[in-house]
Each structure stands twice: as C-alpha cells, then as structure tokens.
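Researcher: I'm preparing a figure for a lab meeting and need a structural model of a single chain. I don't have an experimental structure, so a prediction will have to do for now. The sequence is pasted below. Please return the structure as tokens so I can convert it later.
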Amino acid sequence: DSNITPTKVKFYGVERNLQQIRLARTNVQQAGFIKNIKLIHSDFLQFEPDTGTGYIVSNLPFGERLTELEQNELNDMYQDLGTYLKHHCVGFGAALFSSNKEAVNHIGLKPKRKYKLFNGKIEATLYLYDLYQGSLKDKVKEDEIKTNF
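Model: Understood. Here is the structure written out token by token.
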C-alpha cells in the first residue's frame, strides 16, 4: 500500500513451534511486510543476532495456574533467557511482557522501566531492559566517565 514507508530495519521472529511460524508467515504476508520480517523456526536461545544493536521483544509464557514443579520449570526458562540476553545481546534493548512476577525475578536483570498492561483480562507488565556487559555498577561508572569528558 502507498502508506507503507520502506525501512532498513531488520525484524526477526523466532519460534520453536512450526505451526506458529506458518501462522505468523501468513499474517506477515497479508500485512505486506514479508520483505521486512524474517521468521526463523528455532529455539530462541539458539538465535544469534547478526547486528551489534537492536531490540528484543517477547511475549513470554505467562504460566497461569501452575503447579510448583511447572513454576520451577518456568523459572528455569526465564533464568536461561536472562543468561542468553546477558551473553549474546550486549548493546541491545529488550522489552519482555509477562504476568509471572516470580519467573521474571529469575531473569536476573534490573528493568529500567515497567509498564502495567493487560493481556485480555490478565494483568501483566512490560519490562524494559538495557543489555550491557558487566554489572549495573560498572555501567553507571562508565556512563559517568563519558559524561564528565
């Protein structure tokens, strides 16, 4: 359509479930963005970004009404995600959407902002992160040094 402005930004969709990839591909084609969005059938933790900067956006599994064992498994998955982001996505930002506060605490990152939202009737939070190497203390010191010069 004439109202769509071309962009040089790369978008990736990464999903383990092949049926969801097929559904997403159909939606992307119908929306006219097939040239802008690359859909990848893979575990997200195996995805390697091919740029030094970008933004990771994820609607994480919420895990409503879980048994203790299921909650522990979800906590482990969130922890794996946090480890992945720290080691593979330095220089990126991340926006992670979840209603499971316990699991989010296992990500191991401090969000710079939080926004209360709803997914249908489920209250959830959009957590925004800056991904950098080292600790938050190191990042603050580095920013102070840059500011003072």
